[in-house]
Design brief:
Oligomer: single chain
InterPro entries: Pur-cyt_permease, Uracil/uridine/allantoin_perm
Family: Belongs to the purine-cytosine permease (2.A.39) family.
CATH topology: Hydantoin permease
Strand content: under 5%
CATH superfamily: Hydantoin permease
Pfam families: Transp_cyt_pur
Shape: globular
CATH architecture: Orthogonal Bundle
Keywords: Membrane, Transmembrane, Transmembrane helix
Subcellular location: Membrane
């Protein structure tokens, strides 16, 4: 019996350094090898997720349920969505937490060495697009602060400077992420509390009593709302092992679920309810636009703009740099620092100044709907593979052996993902939920009864 608590053995025909876990890890020295040195305790890990999961789109999600849900239902929908996120992150992050392996290595057991390019692209391409998009938004916020306070207005300058700053932070790897998120989470929390207070203070008299008294819905619209808030983090559910491998040992599944849920809930709840209340009071779906027009309240405007800029940094460095960086490391055998710089430069190539135009909205929405359709199915395949096929036991040696049983492509995983995506595209309101069972069941049946996939069961 192989003892997985010990460093994995070298595989014949492969350099032993490929599998040798790092004894120490300086800033930027990330690798795909099993992670031995873990730098995050529970509190640091919670704060990392807190600071890294701030999505400006959450404001809009809150606005979208106005007239459908009352205040209690909206609050519960957000809470349930965050709990489901917590469970999903704990489930799919278990392999990374136990064995110290990243997402691209974990996916080899389900998709095969060559097959991991599929989930890798599904995760990496949107991350790079959003990296550029959110950097442009953050630069715009900084530019507005500069123009308001100092009279200096140059968006291109701030975009280039903002992106170079993020690239500089990215090359520090998880050492940089740890301290950026830990420090940044305090500013983010204080900003959200102030924005929430300002919303209630300014629009309290305009908020109709119907927010509490309206009947709302506990049916499909309610569960669809839980998926709205859940869907924001569905990309993170795929590559959660990239982060869980950095968490020190000693936390069980229940505690991990709590860590994830409680790190994501505060930001999601504040931002969702701010969007909900502002939209109900003003009829404007974008609270940022409302705050930007608050010319008589400069502190609120400055806080909001700095919050936007800072949130883009903390979210990008955690969510949108790490996944494509590891994909480039796996595909092109690049070092972490080199790959993270390449990702930062690729973000320029997304032409975010074009993506923010009104005429680009339809294309961007189609892009989001298309790649989102694959997130639930790939998640289901990974979970079924780890818990039902592997029984939570991985042979780490084989995951690093390109000539072993995981060589090539496991078509069962690809087919199951496509089946789930087809369902997701046809049930848009609850697509993530609806795609899980078809994808998971298809993968399980193919692995059990389709001969070409049998070697992947070893």
């Amino acid at each position: 019996m192989h003892d997985h608590s010990l460093p994995p053995r070298a595989v014949p025909g492969q350099p032993s350094a490929t599998l040798q876990p790092t004894a120490t890890k300086a800033a930027g020295e990330e690798s795909l090898a099993p992670q031995k040195t873990r730098i995050m305790g529970r509190f640091s890990y919670l704060l990392a997720w807190f600071g890294g999961c701030v999505s400006i789109g959450t404001f809009t999600m809150g606005s979208s349920v106005v007239g459908t849900l009352n205040l209690v239902q909206a609050t519960l929908a957000i809470a349930i969505g965050c709990f489901v996120i917590g469970v999903a992150l704990a489930l799919n992050g278990a392999a990374g937490y136990k064995y110290g392996i990243p997402f691209m290595v974990q996916a080899r057991s389900a998709f095969g060495f060559s097959g991991t390019r599929f989930p890798g692209l599904v995760r990496a391409v949107p991350a790079i697009v959003w990296y550029g998009f959110q950097s442009w938004i953050g630069a715009g916020a900084l530019n507005m602060v500069s123009a308001t306070l100092f009279g200096f207005d140059n968006l291109v300058f701030y975009f280039i400077a903002f992106q170079l700053l993020q690239i500089g932070l990215s090359v520090l790897g998880f050492q940089g992420i740890k301290w950026l998120e830990n420090i940044g989470s305090g500013f983010i929390l204080c900003s959200l509390v102030y924005m929430f207070y300002s919303t209630v203070d300014r629009y309290g008299s305009e908020l109709s009593a119907s927010l509490l008294t309206m009947e709302g819905s506990w049916g499909l619209p309610f569960w669809g709302a839980t998926m709205l808030f859940l869907g924001i983090y569905s990309t993170m559910m795929l590559n959660v092992s990239d982060y869980s491998r950095e968490l020190k040992h000693g936390s069980g599944p229940g505690l991990l679920t709590t860590l994830y849920s409680m790190s994501i809930l505060p930001c999601t709840l504040f931002m969702g309810l701010i969007g909900f209340m502002v939209s109900e009071a003003t009829g404007v779906a974008d609270p940022i636009q409302v705050f930007a027009n608050a010319v008589n309240n400069t502190p609120l405007l400055m806080t909001t703009l700095l919050f936007i800029a800072f949130a883009q940094v903390t979210t990008n460095v955690l969510n949108n740099v790490v996944p494509p960086t590891y994909v480039l490391m796996d595909t092109f055998k690049l070092k972490y620092r080199t790959a993270s710089v390449v990702v930062g430069l690729l973000a320029f190539a997304t032409f975010p100044w074009e993506l923010v135009k009104d005429e680009s909205a339809a294309g961007l929405q189609l892009f989001v709907q298309t790649y989102s359709a694959f997130l639930g199915p790939i998640f289901a395949v990974l979970v079924v593979d780890y818990y039902l096929i592997r029984r939570r036991t991985l042979d780490v040696d084989k995951l690093y052996d390109e000539t072993g049983p995981y060589r090539g492509v496991n078509y069962a995983a690809v087919i199951a993902s496509l089946v789930g995506a087809a369902v997701a595209l046809n049930v848009s309101s609850i697509s993530w939920y609806a795609s899980l069972l078809p994808a998971g069941l298809t993968y399980l049946l193919l692995m059990r009864y389709w001969a070409p996939c049998q070697r992947f069961c070893q």
